[in-house]
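=== RUN LOG ===
request id: a7f3
mode: sequence -> structure
chains: 1
length: 333
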Amino acid sequence: MCKAKIFILTVLFSPFVSCDNQEINKQDSIYIAGVELADNGKTIATYWANNQKFSLTNGTNSSNAVSIFVLDQDVYVAGHEYNTDGKPIAKYWKNGIETILSNNWSLATSITLSGTDVYVAGYEQIGDGTRTIAKYWKNGIVFDLTDGTSYDFTSSIKVINNDVYVTGGQNNGNLIAKYWKNGNTVILSTGANTNAYANSIDVVGNDIYVAGKEANTSIIPRAKYWKNGTTVNLTTGDTYASANSITISNGDIYVAGYENSSNGTSVVKYWKNGIGVNLPTTSLTDFATSIKVVAGDIYVTGEEGTYWKNSKQTRLSTDSKVFLARDIFIVSK
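=== RESULT ===
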C-alpha cells in the first residue's frame, strides 16, 4: 500500500536560456530532454524546443534531465542536480522554475501529467546506501511504493483514468523487473538466474505493455516487451540488446532500443510490431532512448545527442557538447 508524506520545496530563478528568442511556436514542436557538457566538465540539465536550447542549471554542479512533458505552453522536465556534498537531488522544472522533491540522495526518473496534476517517478536512498525506496510524487506529495528493506528503483510513470502505473525493479542479487499499479506490485521476471529490467510502460484499454530486457541463464540480455505479463522477445539473445521505450499507436506496437552487431558495435533501432528498423548513425555506441508516434510520424531520440523523425537523423548540436538525449515529447496541431 502507498504511504503518503508531504515534502516539497520550490525555488524560483530565471532559467539559463541559450537563445535570444524565448517565444516558441507550440505547433508541431519537438521537445527533447537531455544533457549538455559544460566547459568546466560538469553536466547541465537541458531541454531543446525545435532545436533551441534551454539550460536548466548554471553548470556549477552537475545535473541531468531525463524526462519531459508539455501541456499547453508549459514545459515540465524531470531530473536531478548534485548538491555541494556530491549527492543527487530529485527535482523537476516547470518553465525553468525548479521544484525540489527531496533533500536526500534521490533520483527523479520520469514525469507525466494528468489534467493539471504533476506526477514524478523516482527513488530515494536510505540507511547505508544499500537500500532505497521506490516512489512517486503527485504534486509534491510522496507515495512510497516499497518499504526500504531492499534496493528498489523506478524507470517510468504513466497515468491512465486516474490509475498510476510505475515501472522499475529490485536488486536482490538478481535484478527483478516489475511495475506497480496504484501501489500494487506486479512481477514480470522470475527465476534465480534471471536479470531483467522494466524500462517503459504504455497502457491501452485493459492491455498493459512494458518494454525492457532480460537475461536468463545467459549473461546476454534480450530486448523484449511484456503484454499483460506475457513475454514477447524482440531479439534472439545472440548479442546484447535492450528495449528502452514503448508506445502504442493505432494498434501498432513501437519499441525503441538497440541491438549489438556481431562485431560488438551498437545498432540503434526501433521495432514496429516486432519488425526491427535500423536507424542511420555514425556512432558505434549510440542507442535509442525514447520513442513517440504522432499522426503516423515516428520520433526516436538517441543517447548521443540526436533524434530521428521517420528515420531522418538530426543532431541537437554541431559540436560535441550534447551527449545525452533522453526523452522526447511532440506537440502537434
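=== NOTES ===
The two ends are 40 Å apart (CA to CA).
Residues 3-16+26-331 form a domain with the Neuraminidase fold (CATH 2.120.10.30).
=== END ===
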